Amino acid sequence: MNPTQMFDREEMMRLTREGMENSLRFFLTINENILKMGEWQMENLTEHNKRAVETINKAYEEHQKVSRVIMGRIETVCREVIKHATPQEKAAGSEK
Known about the structure:
84% helix; mainly alpha
């Protein structure tokens, strides 16, 4: 056997080209799938973020409502305490 019969240059070129094409196709497919997964996650994340913001806004509105009620009640109680704690002026004619 001579060296030219043991090593078929054309066959090696064909196998190399085929291997590179398959490798390139494989990595392109992986990249496309990763990009699709990223888009899915962004869509889901965006939807979750919208729901989270809505929940936070509702909680904030409820907090404001309750705070207004509490502050109104505190104000009323403070006015009553001040009213009862300060001496009342008697009518000018009733002292004599």
